[in-house]
């Protein structure tokens, strides 16, 4: 799985996401019938330009429902993959809320390592008015 994610995320092989389409859709239908507002974890603009696509957004596209990329932005361009577990857990929140978040949110990300990325995004969204934030990830490492 590590090799597949590396190829998808770091070598820009977008087509790999299609192999997960059925699993993504069935998992979503099983666990998120209430259809919360979907927000893919954003990449910093420089990172998005380097990768040519946002892997979390690629997952959100497979849900076949609207998703929102204008509620949360990323200010920090530091690679999480280069940080130790301690550095990830103690890092400053890299996100900014750009508009009032809805009450029910589903954050989408590609990989759950320490949970820090999702936790930081969720904390900020709740601080700005969201009532509940859940997450959906492709992989847990």
UniProtKB/TrEMBL annotation:
Q: Which sequence ranges are marked TM in the entry?
A: none
Q: Which residues form the Phosphoribosyltransferase domain?
A: 103-140
Which InterPro entries does the record cross-reference, listed alphabetically? ComF/GntX_DNA_util-trans, PRTase-like, PRTase_dom
What Pfam families does the database record attribute to this sequence? Pribosyltran (PF00156)
**Family stated for the protein in its record:** Belongs to the ComF/GntX family.
Please identify the protein, giving its name as recorded: ComF family protein
- Upper taxonomic lineage: Bacteria, Bacillati, Bacillota, Bacilli, Bacillales
């Amino acid at each position: 799985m590590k090799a597949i994610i590396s190829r998808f995320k770091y070598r820009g092989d977008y087509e790999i996401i299609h192999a997960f389409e059925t699993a993504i859709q069935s998992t979503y239908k099983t666990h998120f019938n209430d259809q919360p507002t979907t927000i893919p974890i954003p990449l910093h603009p420089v990172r998005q330009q380097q990768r040519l696509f946002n892997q979390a957004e690629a997952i959100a596209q497979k849900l076949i429902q609207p998703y929102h990329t204008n509620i949360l932005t990323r200010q920090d361009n530091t690679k999480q993959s280069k940080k130790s577990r301690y550095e990830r857990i103690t890092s400053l929140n890299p996100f900014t809320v750009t508009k009032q978040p809805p009450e029910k949110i589903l954050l989408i990300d590609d990989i759950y390592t320490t949970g820090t990325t999702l936790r930081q995004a969720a904390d900020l969204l709740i601080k700005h008015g969201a009532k509940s934030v859940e997450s959906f990830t492709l992989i847990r490492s």
